[in-house]
Amino acid sequence: MHNQNKISFLSSLVSSGNMPHAMLFSGTDRKAKMGISLGFAKFMLGGTEMHEGDFEEFFETGCECGVCMSVDKGIHPDLTVLPDYPVSIGSVRDLKKKFAMSPFASYMKVCVVEFAETLRKESANAFLKLLEEPKGNALLILIAPSRSSILPTIFSRVSEIRFFSSINMSDLIPEDELERCNQEIEVLERGEIQEKFAVARRYDLKNKNELASLLDVWLMRLRDKFYKDDSANAAALAKRIFKIKSITGWSNASPQLLLEKLVLDSE
Ligand SMILES: [Zn+2]
């Protein structure tokens, strides 16, 4: 199992007693990120009272104690999962209120933010307060496609654990190139139009391979969004990306112009 080392790492973090209060689970393997974060939430909420042994063993064998069952049913009072896309300022405010109180059933509180990359402006500012002034026993797990997809102010306050899909992107694409792709995709999705065009200008017939990596990483990231309600937009974008991929594969059409068209079509 390729995420085994993440599980062992989390396991050793708990035993070391040096658990960070905020973690970023980054990477393209959304299923693994969610599965392991909920498993970890269960393990921590149950504590040593319910869960003997380490997290690695716990995750492998599974558990059906009352705590774990209530997490599965989505009714554990000390676990908050923020599934909204984008994260709204309202949910962050509710979360802050919850985190200001002491735990109800467990000895700690846990929050999983499913789309931490959507924390922007007001929601990010409110969330930063939580990160800066952790109250009592609290654990925040942020899930995002990459470190560059979340705001630097947030990233600087979390410990990152990286996940990759079974098609391991880091095997296919060197780490620094993966990081570059992620940064450019952020701009292409969310930047100002001038910034988007500046990215497009970087591509010509000489660096077709780099463009191919960019498009592959982009498609991989979009897969995450198919799980959410903006899946129609994600699917439309994915179709356009596939089209560029195939056109650049067989023709000498200008990659810059194709990217510019994609940007304009998505405005
Ligand atoms: Zn349990």
UniProtKB/TrEMBL annotation:
Question: Tell me, which GO biological process terms does this entry list?
Answer: DNA-templated DNA replication
What domain of life does the native source organism fall in?
A: Bacteria
Q: PANTHER family recorded for this chain? A: DNA POLYMERASE III SUBUNIT DELTA, REPLICATION FACTOR C / DNA POLYMERASE III GAMMA-TAU SUBUNIT
Protein name per its UniProtKB record: DNA polymerase III subunit delta
From which organism does this entry originate?
Answer: Candidatus Magasanikbacteria bacterium RIFCSPHIGHO2_01_FULL_47_8
